[in-house]
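Today's session is about reading a structure prediction critically. Students often jump straight to the picture, but the first step is always the sequence itself: look for stretches that repeat, for charged clusters, for runs of hydrophobic residues. Only then move on to the predicted structure, which in these notes is written as discrete structure tokens rather than atom positions. Here is the chain we will use throughout the hour.
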Amino acid sequence: MTTTPPTLLYVEDDAGLARLVQRGLTKLGYAVEHAADGEAGLARLARGGIDVIALDQHMPGLDGLETLERIMAIPGAPPVVFVTASQDSQIAITALKAGAADYLVKDAQGEFLPQMHQAIDGAIKQALIRKARNEAEAEVHASRDRFAALAAEREMLLREVNHRVGNSLQIIASLLHLQANSAAQEDVKAALTNAMGRVAAVAQVHRRLYTSHDLNSVLLNQYLEALLEDLRRSAEGNRMSRLTLKAAPVEIDPDRAVAIGIIVNELVMNAVKYAYPDGAGPIHVNLTTQGDDFRLTITDDGVGLNVKIDPRSTGMGQRIVNAMANKLDATVERDPDHSGTRIVLTFRCAKSAPAQPASVAG
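Below is the predicted structure for this chain, in token form.
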């Protein structure tokens, strides 16, 4: 396979020296073109096809440094080897700072040709390496941009999915609420109301994710506030008028947030049904952090252990709390020193080895 020889443009006002360089480098496999001054060199460079430039320092009109500056301003300019007759190292430093790939000191007899060959060959190799690096960096940037675009599209789709799921669950909760209001039997009404609360707890997570800055986490304090507001709106009369929340601004993954929301829903509804037989009373939800643990308490000042459980109760609430606590690897305990009822749920900020939850009356 025939390889096209690299083309050298030698910008030199000494025609005899230029012919000497042309003969010597042609034998070494280069196609050599000559320009007599800086302006001619720039004009030839503009036509393209030049792989490397050897640029003399002293020339009429534009000198070597001025020509070098104009070459470096051309996008994608070929590498330049700066050629000078001066032994002044400051000239070489200035040329290298201006963008020259290399420099060499010439003589009138052409004994610098081996050094020129070495410098030109090195400049071409450096240019190829730089080109490959730039292309690789450009591909990395393009891949990163494509990934960012795909990630943004995925995030938008996930937000839309959460939005639609949240809306659908909210519609189901509303239908359950309507059904509960129209139910004639109290146990049917209670079952539908409980089901509505459980659906609403899940719907709230999806609504939180739709507006969250991070689709992988939920701000637990904001989620619980919205959940309790849903419970207040759905309550009959003023039975939840004294329902309060005090929660630390902590983040948690959506799956665990759902489990926490369902537990809070069950225990709050449990307090509403049993804590105050003669009316409404305070119910407090409190979320704190203790080292690596979350501590969630649901407290009332009601009848406590003297509660009379409805004989028609199925124990569904208790089973749901235990199942969700197991999902959280949490412990659930009743505070024996509280005169009313205080349920304490303790679980790790990050998921840990499974723990056996205690049973809770519901």
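Discussion point for the tutorial: The domain at 142-348 is CATH 3.30.565.10 (Heat Shock Protein 90).
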